[in-house]
């Protein structure tokens, strides 16, 4: 009703103005019968009121739809036009909606095609990396070791691209099962043994063997790999240690990963999980991409886990995953 009255305000104002003007013209012509003038005003007002009531009743659903918040972009389709104006607007909205869906489908197909190309490209790149790794795995000279280290970096970079591309289609690649937490952590640390050797960092596990979690092993392994890589990268201390602890608290299983690295400045802590944020440490260590912690948080969120981070600059960082 408020919207209707606001729209009809000019009509009502013009009506009263023309009523005054016509009455004044008759008064100037010498017509002084007040009772007849008031009767004419009453009849005219009744006609205006009838017009406004008719206008409101025929446009009521239209005004109601304009006033209600839209829950989805296709919400207007349930409106039944009852007047030429609402019918014309309804046709326009339907036409725009079809154009929108057409453009949206076109962009969706492009994105899906791009993601498919990225996935195929990553898998193609993994083949020569595996072949090169097989060619040098029996060699122990410094040159071969350096090549192996660079292959590890390449493999991790490709994995990050692959998992980033798959993140939007997470539900299509999800297999949830009950896992022994200690075995998952030991498998992740064993896979990263070359990284530990290169960084001169030693993993220390303090975990109860009977702790179990419900998660997706592949996605969780990627999260642990990112956390381990960050911990080793930012540990400059000779013979530093990376501690893995797990316990149950308040009905939850908590995995804690603590390093002896350089820590994170307090000003950077609120943005650690933002995409592409590298911070002060990222500028000192050129390998940082700013995507590792972002992906870890997104994957944990999709898996139903929580991830927390505490850090003291110069002393180290603690990351907790709450299952």
Automatic annotation (TrEMBL):
It holds the Pfam family HATPase_c. This is histidine kinase. It is an enzyme of class 2 (transferase). The chain crosses the membrane at residues 12-28, 34-54. Residues 120-323 form the Histidine kinase domain. Gene3D superfamilies: Histidine kinase-like ATPase, C-terminal domain (3.30.565.10). One of its GO terms (molecular function) is ATP binding. Its EC number is 2.7.13.3.
